[in-house]
Write a structure and sequence with these properties.
By secondary structure, the chain is mainly α. Helix content is about 45%, strand content about 5%. The chain has 2 domains: about 70 residues, 434 Repressor (Amino-terminal Domain); about 40 residues, no CATH class.
Length: about 150
């Protein structure tokens, strides 16, 4: 078995590993799972101690394992990785969504995603795909309720 520990002589790798770990922890917490829950629910495929080491950036996760973890969390694999902010990143495609001032109050619509899973048919499939795109854009994978305005 190969040891994928991050070494301190590679500062960029170490920083990236920590950012990957932050994403892994964020997704797990959005799913409201503890490290022990993940271990138990994955039939011990993802040991709590190893997953914790990934989340702290102490160990590097392999691509196949990352894919299996994404499947377990039911999220696209790219959502387990931090956004690309490499040397060629100029931010041109980034839209600032922090200004939330509105001229008038906007009503919110809460969509029960668990009930939506029970509905069948082409309209339900289309709505499910659309809402999944919103979840990816927001990086919101709690999987229970989605609020839109």
């Amino acid at each position: 078995m190969t040891d994928h520990r991050l070494s301190d002589d590679e500062p960029q790798s170490t920083a990236y590993g920590r950012r990957v770990g932050e994403r892994l922890r964020s997704i797990r917490r959005q799913k409201r799972l503890s490290l022990q829950d993940v271990e138990a629910n994955s039939a011990q495929e993802f040991k709590a101690s190893v997953l914790g080491a990934y989340e702290r950036g102490e160990r590097a996760i392999s691509v196949p394992r990352l894919q299996r973890l994404a499947r377990f969390y039911n999220v696209p694999v790219d959502q387990l990785l931090p956004p690309d902010e490499g040397p060629d990143f100029d931010g041109a495609d980034v839209i600032d969504l922090t200004d939330r001032r509105a001229e008038r109050p906007v009503e919110k619509l809460a969509i029960d995603l668990t009930r939506l899973d029970e509905i069948r048919g082409p309209d339900a499939e289309m709505l499910t795909r659309y809402l999944a795109m919103i979840q990816v854009q927001r990086q919101d994978f709690n999987g229970r309720v989605l609020t839109v305005r």
